[in-house]
């Protein structure tokens, strides 16, 4: 994989992201990733809490109207995530924790979208089914796991760039 | 760090400060909890603000407000983890422009919250499904959303504004 990492790391975009002193380069991408997480994980947590019985006065079917927040967050984080990966491909792709994060993000996104469909089916009922509640609880756990795995990326990588010496 | 201010000497002398420096994995765990608290706060308060601004109007604001205690929970979680960070490396924050901005945004958000619950909440509670909120409530919701987003931005930038002696 090293030749592949080297090509990405030597690309103009990767070099700019890593070396530019502009706040819009690497810091800006991290800011966007944090804002996207707030919208994506935060919005999803709020929706899952409603399904679990918090704020029962909110009609289940009406939750659907907040999904644009979910999509804005997901778009922001796919975009900023690809940029972070472009800046440091070796760092992420040689770290098993990165794939654990991707797994939990995939599970969390899938569970949250599934929740929307279940809530839609129950459009005229106030109480969600047990299946929907279990899915909501799973979604919350998946988001927490994704957040932890994401933050731990900064502490578990063994390589930084193709050319930098192996730490451990 | 030869000449520390008296408050720095006090912070550095606490058991909490020593705990933070002695436990390597405590830091990333606290950071992860800080991100979780951030998500809970912006997820619940943010959706409420968006409703006040006119999104998802079929939901009565009072019903959505029941999510707010979870946002307060996120805030408390972040206050605790924030204190954890500060006690570990007080200089990194006290002499950091991004952290100053974060505190200023938090002060504005706090004042805005007092105004909201003091002046606008009574009216907001009577707004039914499909109805619009008063313009005052919309202004406060806009300020709230802008401040919390500003707090996330400034918070994420702290690491890029560390004082030079810290490196």
What's the short version?
The complex is a heterodimer of chains A (168) and B (167). Chain A has 168 residues and is mainly α.
What labels would you give this structure?
heterodimer; A: 168 residues; mainly alpha; 7 helices; 72% helix; elongated; B: 167 residues; 8 helices; 0% strand
Describe the structure.
The complex is a heterodimer of chains A (168) and B (167). With 168 residues, chain A is an all-alpha fold. Chain A has one domain. Chain A has helices spanning 2-9, 12-19, 26-51, 67-87, 89-93, 96-121, 130-156. The radius of gyration of chain A is 19 Å and the shape is elongated. The mean pLDDT of chain A is 94. Chain B is mainly alpha-helical and 167 residues long. Chain B has one domain (6-166). The mean pLDDT of chain B is 96. The A-B interface holds A 23, 27, 30-31, 34-35, 37-39, 41-46, 49-50, 54-59, 62, 65-66, 68-69, 143-144, 147-148, 150-152, 154-155 and B 25, 28-29, 31-32, 35-36, 38-44, 46-47, 50, 55-56, 58-60, 62-67, 70, 149, 152-153, 155-157, 160.
Q: Considering DSSP H and I runs of 4 or more, what fraction of the residues of chain B is helical?
A: over 70%
| Number of β-strand runs of chain B | 0
By DSSP (H or I, 4+ residues per run), the number of helices of chain B equals: 8
Helix content of chain A: over 70%
Total number of helical segments of chain A?
Answer: 7
**How many domains comprise the coordinates of chain B?**
1
Give the chain pair forming the largest contact, with residue counts: A-B, 37 and 36 residues
Span of the ends, CA to CA of chain A:
19 Å
Assembly annotation: heterodimer
Total number of domains of chain A: 1
Tell me the β content of chain B: under 5%
**What is the number of E strands of chain A?**
0
Strand content of chain A: under 5%
Largest sheet of chain A: none
Shape of chain B: elongated
Unreliable stretches of chain A: none
Mean pLDDT of chain A: 94
Radius of gyration of chain B: 19 Å
């Amino acid at each position: 994989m090293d030749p592949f990492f080297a090509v990405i790391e030597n690309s103009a975009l990767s070099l700019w992201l890593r070396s530019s002193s502009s706040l819009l380069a690497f810091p800006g991408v991290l800011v966007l990733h944090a804002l996207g997480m707030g919208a994506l994980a935060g919005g999803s947590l709020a929706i899952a809490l409603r399904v679990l019985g918090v704020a029962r006065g909110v009609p289940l079917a009406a939750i659907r109207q907040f999904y644009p927040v979910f999509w804005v967050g997901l778009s922001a984080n796919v975009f900023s995530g690809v940029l972070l990966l472009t800046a440091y491909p070796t760092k992420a792709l040689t770290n098993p924790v990165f794939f654990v994060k991707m797994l939990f993000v995939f599970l969390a996104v899938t569970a949250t979208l599934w929740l929307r469909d279940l809530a839609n089916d129950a459009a005229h009922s106030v109480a969600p089914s047990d299946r929907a509640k279990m899915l909501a609880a799973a979604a919350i756990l998946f988001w927490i796991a994704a957040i932890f795995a994401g933050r731990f990326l900064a502490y578990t990588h063994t390589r930084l760039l193709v050319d930098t010496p192996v730490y451990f | 760090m030869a000449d520390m201010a008296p408050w720095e000497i006090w912070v550095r002398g606490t058991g909490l400060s020593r705990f933070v420096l002695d436990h390597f994995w405590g830091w990333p765990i606290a950071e992860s909890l800080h991100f979780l608290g951030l998500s809970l706060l912006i997820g619940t308060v943010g959706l409420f603000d968006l409703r006040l601004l006119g999104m998802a109007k079929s939901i009565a604001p009072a019903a959505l407000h029941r999510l707010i205690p979870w946002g307060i929970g996120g805030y408390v979680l972040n206050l605790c983890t924030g204190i954890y960070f500060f006690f570990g490396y007080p200089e990194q924050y006290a002499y950091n422009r991004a952290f100053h901005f974060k505190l200023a945004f938090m002060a504005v958000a706090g004042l805005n919250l007092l105004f909201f619950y003091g002046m606008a909440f009574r009216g907001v509670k009577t707004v039914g499904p499909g109805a619009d909120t008063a313009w005052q409530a919309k202004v406060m919701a806009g300020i709230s959303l802008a401040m919390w987003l500003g707090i996330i931005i400034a918070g994420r930038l702290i690491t890029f504004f560390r004082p030079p002696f810290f490196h």
